[in-house]
# Entry
Amino acid sequence: MFFTELAEALAASPQEWILDGNFDRTRHIKWHDVDMVVWVDYPFWRVFSQALTRAVKRIISQEELWPGTGNRESFRKTFLSRDSVLLWSLKTWRQNRKRYFADMINPLYSHIQFVRLTSIKETQVLVKSLNVSA
# Structure
C-alpha cells in the first residue's frame, strides 16, 4: 500500500519537485522520473561528527526531531541503544557509498544526472549556482 501511495503522490505532483532521503526500498519508484540526484558524500568523520553534535544539542535542548511527534533524543537512545543514530551512522555510511557508486553506473538509472558533492565548499558552490538560499 505504501509503495502505491508513493507512486500516486509522485504522479500527481507538479513536474518540478525536490525529494530527499536514503530510503532505499522506494528508490525504484522515486527515481523513475528523476532528472538529477545530488549525492552529499562527505567523509565519514564529518558525517559522524555532525550526527554526534546534533544528537548532543537535541539531548540538551529536548528539541523534537519532527515537531509535533514527541520524538526526542535521549542519552540512552543516542549512546546505549541499538536504535542510536550514531550506531546507524557507523553501520550504514560505507554501504550507502557503495550503493550510490553502483547506482551511478546502473543502466536502470542512466537517465539521471548524478552530482556528487564531497565537501561543504562544493555544496556551497552548487547552492549558489542554483540561486537558492541554504
Q: What stands out?
A: The longest strand covers residues 36-40. The helical segments are 2-12, 27-30, 44-61, 75-79, 85-105, 120-130.
